[in-house]
Task: structure prediction
Amino acid sequence: MSIISKLKKGSKDPKAAFTYLMQSTKNKFVTREYIAQSNNRSGSENGLYLKAVQNATKDYKSFSNFKRSLNYREILEHVSKDQGQVYLDNIIQNSPDLLGNINIFKENDAVGNPIVYEYKGIGLISPTSLRYLKVASDLKIIFGEQIGDKIVEIGCGYGGQALINDRVFKIKQYKLIDLPPVLTLISKYLESYILNCAYETSTLNQISTADKYDLAISNYAFSELPGPLQRMYIEKILKNCKKGYLTMNSGKSDTKTDHLGRMTIKQLEKLLPPFEILEEKPLTNNENYIIVWGRNY
Result:
């Protein structure tokens, strides 16, 4: 997001706009951190996100407030209050039973000091937690009460989706795939809780093609990868999954217009298990959609 975009976004909140401007100025002097070579990086990898991730695991104070970091929120924790309300409305309509245990899901806000808002009927909660809960609601509707024993998630943030899923479903094993610094944060975060399932963290290179999974989940991460890396994720992980739920923000456009060469829907149809396309609700971008296979009819 450009400085101008940030200022426009904060036009109704001068304090927020000023904070974004100050952070953008500071970022000119921050050493950016990258893991992969430039042609193997996610479309959202700007060097500031990984730096924020590393800072989050540096000491207790940083970890206790990492969800407030502007550079971290550029990638995660940026769901607005209004979007949170739409997610909540969706849950009320489709999975109202989940809200009977809302305090269990509010646990996701106990670490990292996220921005929380008051929502009618459920009290204070972060809109990001509501988004994770809405995804869990989708999984429950699409795949049923039992989504599988062995779950794999591609691009896992700090592990919030895994935590919410652990509270909703009976899962035995949960594998989280991401970059090394992010995996360090995920482990630190999840170890702040007592989970029902066992979890493992791994990079793509540490994954064996012999591994099989009941369900693959990705909240935008897979769709932000460059084409060659997407193919490797399909080869090593996704084609070995009985079920899949991938929220996508690429693929509708021709790869010739995409500087990362991300695969189109037609290309994905040739490589992934047979899938259907669902509308993202709420639709957060016109390019977004959800890929699903293994639906429980």
Summary: The chain is about 40% helix and 15% strand.
